[in-house]
Amino acid sequence: MKKVPMRIIDKDFNLLGEIDDYESLQFIRRFYKVGEFELHINMDKANTDTLVKNNLIILGSSLNKVGIIMHRENSVDDNGVDELIIKGPTLKGIMSRRLIVPPVNGNGYDSQTGSIETILKAFVNNHVINPTDADRKILQAAIAPDQQRGKQDKWRSRFEVLSDKLAEIGEYASMGWDVVLDIYNNKWIFDVVEGRDLTVDQDTLPPVIFSTDFDNITNPHLIQSLINTANVGYAGGHGDDADRLIQQMGSSTGVERMETFLDCSQAEDVAELTSMAQQKLNELKEIKTFEFEIIPDNTFIYEQDYDLGDTVTAQSRKWAVTINCQIIEVKEIYEVSGFKLQATFGTNIPSLLTVFKRNSKKVVR
Which part of the chain is the Gp28/Gp37-like domain (predicted)? Predict the structure, then answer.
């Protein structure tokens, strides 16, 4: 695959230029979280003057591969060539620019009840599309029609970063989200995304198997970890000491049983306590992550046979591992030497920042 051409537009959808002779481009798509990109290009090449903050880059004709320029860096390499480095989030990053600010009459929270899709879109509507404070409105943003996908649930929040909350709810419910361009109506469309089951355990769709035996992956890296995990939780609701409502979540026995306490004191009733505890315990589940470089189009075609968010089968006979796991991150690398595709399957490995946020967050919902 050759380097994909890149178009640059401003926030009002005006085409500013096109670039296809860059030195390298890394574009990272994430199913639950905000993705990112990094571009390296000779400063003297055409249209580099359009690479300024808040302009958008579009990869080819892919309206779901859009980045917001937020970082511009000039440097000189060892050969004395002026190099320009451009970085930023994917278009999903607009959701990182807003906090969930509770309404005046909401008892300190923005509370939402309904299907997972309805809840996600309600948070976006309240803080991006139709916020109480008109200064918070992002005029280019819009929401796709609500199909009420996902189970019925209840979530609430106060002063959390909107994109973090969308990721948290999405991971809990296994429903992704994205922001894509609508070039016909000049809008940035928020919508919920569902992956496909492409594992060997189903027979509805052609299965996708990534394995060293099939010569469609290289450089595998497998992580299975129980460190800082738990499978049984004692959830504490309202009350103090002996009068506090305690509910057990999860089940396991013997040495495999790993217990933790779940602070759910903000829960208003038993139903919310149960739901909140399930979400908190889900954050502590066993980590199973499989990373490798995919050989593009060798066995399966990217974005046709499989895509971000799909659940596939990954295996290494040498390591005696076969797991069904979701594609949660894809890194597309375009360089002079060619195209590379790296993927992460399974569970996100919590970063130090994620663990810190989890431990310091007093109000989850």
Answer: 5-347
pLDDT of 318 reads 84
Task: Tell me if the pTM is above 0.85.
Answer: yes
CB 29 within 8 A of CB 308: yes
Angle at 292 between CA 297 and CA 38, to 5 degrees: 85
Q: Strand 141-143 to strand 187-193: parallel, antiparallel, or no bridges (unpaired)?
A: parallel
The neighbour count for residue 326, using CB atoms within 10 Å, is 21
Q: How far apart are CA 91 and CA 275, in angstroms?
A: 31
pLDDT of residue 81: 86
The string of pLDDT tens digits covering residues 20-56 is 999 999 999 999 999 999 999 999 999 999 999 999 9
pLDDT of residue 269: 85
293: which 2 tokens?
A: 């470089």
- φ/ψ (deg, to 5) at 335: -135, 170
